Amino acid sequence: xxxxxxxxxxxxxxxxxxxxxxxxxxxxxxxxxxxxxxxxxxxxxxxxxxxxxxxxxxxxxxxxxxxxxxxxxxxxxxxxxxxxxxxxxxxxxxxxxxxxxxxxxxxxxxxxxxxxxxxxxxxxxxxxxxxxxxxxxxxxxxxxxxxxxxxxxxxxxxxxxxxxxxxxxxxxxxxxxxxxxxxxxxxxxxxxxxxxxxxxxxxxxxxxxxxxxxxxxxxxxxxxxxxxxxxxxxxxxxxxxxxxxxxxxxxxxxxxxxxxxxxxxxxxxxxxxxxxxxxxxxxxxxxxxxxxxxxxxxxxxxxxxxxxxxxxxxxxxxxxxxxxxxxxxxxxxxxxxxxxxxxxxxxxxxxxxxxxxxxxxxxxxxxxxxxxxxxxxxxxxxxxxxxxxxxxxxxxxxxxxxxxxxxxxxxxxxxxxxxxxxxxxxxxxxxxxxxxxxxxxxxxxxxxxxxxxxxxxxxxxxxxxxxxxxxxxxxxxxxxxxxxxxxxxxxxxxxxxxxxxxxxxxxxxxxxxxxxxxxxxxxxxxxxxxxxxxxxxxxxxxxxxxxxxxxxxxxxxxxxxxxxxxxxxxxxxxxxxxxxxxxxxxxxxxxxxxxxxxxxxxxxxxxxxxxxxxxxxxxxxxxxxxxxxxxxxxxxxxxxxxxxxxxxxxxxxxxxxxxxxx
Length: 662
Hints:
Layout: E1 4-8, E2 16-21, E3 25-30, E4 39-43, E5 57-62, H1 66-69, E6 71-79, E7 85-94, E8 100-113, E9 123-125, E10 131-134, E11 157-161, E12 190-193, E13 200-203, E14 210-214, E15 220-226, E16 237-238, E17 241-242, E18 259-262, E19 270-271, E20 288-292, E21 297-303, E22 309-316, E23 321-326, E24 332-336, E25 344-346, E26 369-370, E27 373-377, E28 382-384, E29 396-402, E30 410-411, E31 417-418, E32 424-431, E33 434-444, E34 447-455, E35 462-464, E36 469-473, E37 476-480, H2 483-489, H3 502-505, E38 508-511, E39 516-519, H4 520-526, H5 536-540, H6 553-564, H7 587-590, H8 619-624, H9 642-654
Antiparallel strand pairs: 1-2, 2-3, 3-4, 5-6, 6-7, 7-8, 9-10, 10-11, 11-12, 13-14, 14-15, 15-18, 16-17, 19-20, 20-21, 21-22, 23-24, 24-25, 26-27, 28-29, 29-32, 30-31, 32-33, 33-34, 34-35, 36-37, 38-39
């Protein structure tokens, strides 16, 4: 199913699960592992605006008295009469056959948003029957409108309303004990504030504690325990200290997170879960489970009686998780953005705990290189090169792939290579003849995992790093990524193995072992690496390097964007804006030409993502020219690729209209 956002059961019905899709659909399937049929029970696609990647139908909450009133509440984004982005909290009635009554919609609450990201999206009822709403700070980056600290705005907050009453012409009432119910110049709906993007929160079924996973800006993800009237710091604080964009902030009277997660660990978007209160796994009872969209590890927090915390991890999800779910018995599931058969997971104890793989501490002990001369690849590794390389601050690269014996690569219809379990990809990074880093990307039963090795000055060995690291190399602030950060770029939407696709390898290569030059696709097919023959289209399509004198500016620019940006910016990708930068997308399908940005204008008046004929008005180009928290790509990039800037600028200049590439 495309772009699932949340998973839920209806009270009293343990035989089905319901899944919401961002586009505005709710689907039902049987509560059995072999379920393979989806039934559409609600279609509000015409009401929902899911135009930006974070927008759409995001949250669902059955009423506590659902058994009697059949009410279910939805959180979705639409458009106001003035075409502003609008959050709506709506109530629907569910018929006894499980179908949602489309005509029963009642809008409970609606409010506008300035941007299409940082939407929050979670709604849930507490034990008193009040509805809580995560609103998000309104978007862009760095909370430019200071919504988080403004008590006169609903954005950047957790809201609390009574949906069983009406007052003052509204379809809800304010609970009498709301902290700002009688405060001048404050919205009475607010329960807590200073939150950036509390994408997922939940109540502990036993204690009614409110646990929130608040997605961070550029340094820290947060796990928060929310209290009445609490100020959690954003947009002045991130994690335990001042946000880098407001270094002189005051931390007084602001609540620090229960646990702050450094993005140097590879985390990028914390996915809050639940405190386990099921009956099957006693060892998990009372633990709060969560994960991260990029880092994938299943983790738990246990809060001890003395308020100290105990942390544990349990292996990794093979895909990016977007939401946890709790069934009617308190058992936990998770839903992710994987391919068919790889989207819904049930958390359970196992006699053998499948953990993420480990790797030798020294590169020479991995078997991927010659032990006595680790700058040389081991025999059996196949070298390859790409037509349009990913920009890595000017470093040169050497690339190799390895498959287990008697296995083959499956080539997807779009040309992506799908590797069997046990495959290893290796990449050396060099400045001149000096090796700086070697990365291994391995495919195991738990999914893909990255490992970074730092070379010593003598060039005799490289050592495995335990986390992210920055180091000045060749006058470049070189970034060694953590295992989790590898998966920020190696996305499931892009097939994980970046660069391994027919468009990239459709070129000649001098093979060192034979000193013969041959087309890489032809060579791989000749030695039996593909599970089936390539199509004629796969044999002819290709990407182009920035220095290809035979290619047009459009071919070079689109190839660059495909390589450097489309791993995130494509359908079902993790980016918060709904654009498609794959080379196969037409200019119209890219959704960038003369379209206003939804994630900030960077100070450009009348900015467009790509302004046809006007590079100076184009946000896409501006982000390529920066090295701060607005840069693209956002990771491992401290040097501007001036050649790419020139080529993309020429392409934008050549666009006379948005109908087709010029």
